[in-house]
Amino acid sequence: MLSEGYHSGMINADPQELAKFSELAHRWWDPESEFRPLHQINPLRLQWIDSLAPLAGRQVLDVGCGGGILAESMAQRGAQVLGIDLATKPLKVAQLHALESGVHGVDYREVAVEALAAEMPARFDVVTCMEMLEHVPAPESVVAACTALVKPGGWVFFSTLNRNAKAFLFAIVGAEYVLKLLPRGTHEYEKFIRPSELARWCRDAGLELQRTRGLEYNPLTRRYALTHDTSVNYLFALRRPVA
Q1: pTM
Q2: Which domain, by its residues, includes 82?
């Protein structure tokens, strides 16, 4: 069931968040821009997703796709990908980049995930929602919609930020102010999500947790790595049971 208020015509999005990413849209595919971290972590998350739910030949939905970095790379692995977002400018950037790079098998739509769940229930083999839950007013509504969109037996992948002192220090103070990996104001600590909270929303929606991973950044090597430490950035891999 979708969260109350977000299945009756309201849009589960923060206008300030949409504006923030739209302003930077033209820099999305510049690997040395503010989006450098996304370019660096994309091979890691892509490989993890593909290792658990092989993408070739699958119908895949990327929720909160932004400029299309993950969506395009999943299409290159042989998936048929639909990327959705509510920020118009990043979507246009994604569409243009797909045309320029000649990638086949990826389409984009400006639509809320809750609306798409009503339109296309149980349509996708894999649903990804990466670095998006901490930017919306009702993340539990997104979780429920992603569950409705995946086929029984299909996979759902989430990534977000933990809410604790270490995450505040690393993801906001460190990443935005000290190392300047991200623009200041990219994240709001109050919107961070504890793994226990996300796990509860997933259980309530009917998903079963299969794997967890942490994502760590080494400021000395300037490299990211998937680890078992979920104290800052973390990823969930879940499945919708076959009835």
Answers
A1: 0.89
A2: 15-239
